[in-house]
Amino acid sequence: MKKLVLIAASCTLFLASFSQPFVKMGVGASFGRSPEIEAFAGYNWPLLNVSAGMQVATTNKVLEGGALLQGRFGHLLQIGETFSINPYIGAAHNYRSAERKNLNITKPLFGIEVDKKFRDDIGIYGAFTKTGNLSLASIGVI
């Protein structure tokens, strides 16, 4: 047991030494539905980035709203010094109602994100995400 804990701690420290954490916050729109707000956090490694977050609709209509909980995996493609493109895939759980559980569904997602850095620690991004019958476009600060 002690050996397993040491191996897990070593792997975590090794991966953390090559990663850069990030946080994103933004606003957007679900085509044909309602505006939304979003927040994501994750890590960038040289070959992979991982993020998790949520996009929440700003409506109280059950069929149009809800929270879209997401887990994403992608690869950051650097274009020049300040621009980058991040295509990603993952899964999204659309949580709409506590009483009507059949409305809460999980589907695969895919999308693309373009960002521009102003400094090493701040920039803006634009993203398009498609999951099931939802298409979301958003902009924000990274």
Give a description of the structure:
The chain has 142 residues and is mainly β. The chain has one helix and nine strands. The chain has one helix at 2-17, and strands spanning 20-30, 35-44, 49-57, 67-74, 77-79, 83-95, 105-117, 123-131, 134-141. The protein has an eight-stranded antiparallel beta barrel. β5 (77-79) and β6 (83-95) form a beta hairpin. It is globular.
Could you tell me the mean pLDDT?
87
How large, in whole angstroms, is the Cα Rg? 17 Å
Main sheet properties: 8 strands, antiparallel, barrel
Overall morphology: globular
Order of neighbouring strands in the sheet with most strands: 1-2-3-4-6-7-8-9
Distance between the termini: 40 Å
Counting DSSP E segments of at least 2 residues, the number of strands comes to 9
Oligomer: single chain
Low-confidence stretches: none
- Could you state the order of secondary-structure elements as H and E? HEEEEEEEEE
- Number of separate helices: 1
Beta content: over 45%
